[in-house]
Each structure stands twice: as C-alpha cells, then as structure tokens.
Amino acid sequence: MALRRGRRIGVDVGLARVGVASCDPDGVLATPVATLTRDLEGADDIDALVRLVGEQEAIEVVVGLPLSLSGGEGAAATAVRDYARVLGGRLGAVPVRLVDERLTTVDAHRDLRASGVSGRAQRAVVDQAAAVLILQGALDLERSSGNPPGELVPMKRRKPRTKDGR
Asked: Which of 6, 77, 88, 131 could serve as 12's disulfide partner, Cβ 3.0–4.6 Å?
C-alpha cells in the first residue's frame, strides 16, 4: 500500500516539554528534531511548532493522545486535545491528527536505557524519542491500512467580528 508523499511532524505534548520528530518525504523513517519548553502563558512552543511545520513543508502534524490503558480519556488527554485544537487553528490548511500514544514515553525511556543513555541525560531527549515513536507508529499504521492514522482534529473556526469589534 502506498503512503501519501510528504513530510509529517510528530508531537509528544508533556506538561513541561514538547518533543518533536519529523520524517523523510517518503514517510519511511521518523527522526528526532527538537525538544521545546512548554509555554503555558505565551504559547512560544506552539509558535516554534508552526515555524517548524512551515520550514519542513509538512503535509500533516501527528500529535500523541495519552489514553489510559483501558482506552479512556482523562485530564491529560483533554489537555492534549486542547493543545492540538490551538495548534490546528494556527496551522490553517495543514491538518492535525491525534493518534493513540499509550506507553510511548515508557517505551522511549526503556529504549534510551537500553542504548546506554543515563537517567539524567534521558530527560533532555526522552520527549523527542517519544515523538519519534508516535510518528513512526502513525507512518506504519498508514502503510499497513492505506488510511491516514488517528482522528482528524476539527479546525477551530474564528467567529467573524461585528461592526463594533466584538
């Protein structure tokens, strides 16, 4: 089954950091890109993601949705959905998709430990490693199913202003 051509950006949203990964134009291999510091007040992390999507000429952004082991959604999933909606509103025509990311951070820690990265050094790269796992999983799922992965985030439409500016 053929994949859609074009780079994609993978995102792992955490409370303190945002891990970012991208793939090659053929959608074969996800690689780490950056770890952004979360900016809950000014959204500098979202600004940086918007710039990265433009620089990479990405066709899509894949955001990991932290579901519980039973598949339910808690506060973390709600926060990620909100983040994805804001990001989607800023990106305009570039779609944002949510994909199940259960255990990716756990897997990223395990993989880093297995490759000899110390606990303290893991903190700096674990979010990127989790973003790689999220994106690679999405690429593999699309390749096997022939369909774009996950759930499309609805674009947030801005309300038109009235004459009095509200």
From this structure: 131
CATH 3.40.50.880 fits 8-152, yes or no: no
Looking at residues 105-123, what average pLDDT do you find? Answer: 62
Q: Where are the domains of the chain?
A: 8-152
Q: What is the pLDDT of residues 118-128, one digit of tens each?
A: 666 556 677 88
Three-state secondary structure of the chain:
CCCCCCCEEEEEECCCEEEEEEECCCCCCEEEEEEEECCCCCCHHHHHHHHHHHHHCCCEEEEEECCCCCCCCCHHHHHHHHHHHHHHHHHCCCCEEEEECCCHHHHHHHHHHHCCCCHHHHHHHHHHHHHHHHHHHHHHHHHHHCCCCCEECCCCCCCCCCCCCC
Res 144 pLDDT > 80: yes
Distance CA 46, CA 52 (A): 10
Beta pairing, strands 60-65 & 8-13: parallel
Residue 54 has a pLDDT of 97
